[in-house]
């Protein structure tokens, strides 16, 4: 099982599980909460068929990566990504983030620069700043996130059921663009994630990425569903084109938060077109 060591806890290694397949220009896919690298299966298939090298990995605390009690912040997540890029010595790479994964892309480019990076893709972005403050009136009230944390503490598994209903908008798209089996598969992956990570990551959603976004200097594709109930488009994706130079913005009509599965054809077409042009 391919792994890279990104730190230690109590003298034991913290390791990220990754998969590295294909040849050609490398594309690193960074998954959303609370899933793992396998959640990119519909994009990986399309990218491999188009001749790209595809790298996925599981964020610490999720999937087959180590589940430490520490390191659940975006400085650490970006450092983990940097370690993986250095370990594989990737150059001319395309960084593609979904949901929480867009935070890694933003923070990595803000902190480490674009020396290794050719392009970036932000799908269902968490940037630029999700928390409502005096200087960020477009954000979301802190009470929403406090409620999520309370729900996880009370019954993590029940919370996940509610979460995925809004992750996929199953009341609208269930049985057409998302099956019960696919939702159950996502729930099973999330249930096996670290309970510590599942709770700790909620606070990371409130990170201010505005300084990072301002430093993005590579061509960037932004994709967001206009029916996103998890990261509302008005607070997130719709604000990014004005903040990122040389960006392209695509809105998926009726798209829920996870458009990777529900609108895979549309996402893949936009992604492949962006990569080749």
TrEMBL record:
GO molecular function, one term: hydrolase activity
Keywords: Hydrolase
InterPro entries the UniProt entry points to: AB_hydrolase (IPR050471), AB_hydrolase_1 (IPR000073), AB_hydrolase_fold (IPR029058), Epox_hydrolase-like (IPR000639)
Pfam families named among the record's database cross-references: Abhydrolase_1
Span of domain AB hydrolase-1: 26-262
Source taxon at top rank: Bacteria
PANTHER family: HYDROLASE, ALPHA/BETA FOLD FAMILY PROTEIN (PTHR43433), NON-HEME CHLOROPEROXIDASE-RELATED (PTHR43433:SF4)
Entry protein name: Alpha/beta hydrolase
Annotated source species: Deinococcus arenicola
